[in-house]
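Table 4 source record.
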Amino acid sequence: MAELVDAHDSNSCSERSVGSIPTPGTKREIAAMRSPVFFGLALNLFVHPMKNQWYFSAAVCALCGCEPIQEKIIGTYEIDADHGCSSCAEDGPELMVFEDDDILDGIPGDYRFEFADREEHSGTYGFLQVDSMITLVLYPETATSLYAQLIGESVITDYRVTRGRVKENCNGLLKNCIWVRKD
């Protein structure tokens, strides 16, 4: 008697039965996942967002006027004696000049630093990128007597270039020596 209760006729339960043989609907789902359309959608969802983010970032930079650091630094900067530490005006350059006729040629640009005591040094400059940090590196070629020991050396600086200013930490996190672009 129990066998009659559990027994199904061949037409009523065949589509709802699940076992080691997939139901007919499962075969269609697997075939759809293997189709080029499904693969293309998956590719767009998982791979292309990175590509789309790059396009979005590039568009924002184009609209907002973002420029590479090589272009940002070109100009003449004077020390802002009203900001920063007292040592900024005493020890730092009064004037910083960065020039580069063609930033795309791969040839380093030229720089000149002039100090209060009529001392100076000049040469070429470049940028060193380590992880996400970009550092200005000076390569002095000529200098007055006080800075003569720098000739032939690579001077790695702590300068940061932001919005027409060059900044350097002086005392603590919030104090900066600031040079303001004048041209």
